[in-house]
Fold this protein.
Amino acid sequence: MSKTTITKNDSIMISISNDEELAEYFHSIHTFIRNKFGLYGKSALQFFNFFFVLQLIEDHIPTLIEITYNDEQIQVNCKYSYLQSINDENEKIQQVQYIKQKI
């Protein structure tokens, strides 16, 4: 496998040069999801896929989406960048737990 460098905003996030490093990287993501949110197996994979795709399609979805919650219409910011920008760790976990319940 050739060396792959993944960048975001002109800074290096990770560098993977072989299949073992790639497998190790995905295992670290799975471990993080398991430890932080208590998800295992396919649930962890669905969780990862949801946020990965949410990041990919961010430019193609509206900032606010109207949903019905407890028989009440509310607007929710579904942008990946919004979730990423939440500074309060408890609020971020609460948002992710809400999304986890919906997937």
Remarks:
- The radius of gyration is 16 Å.
- DSSP finds four helices and four strands in the chain.
- The chain has a mean pLDDT of 76.
- The chain has one domain: 4-102.
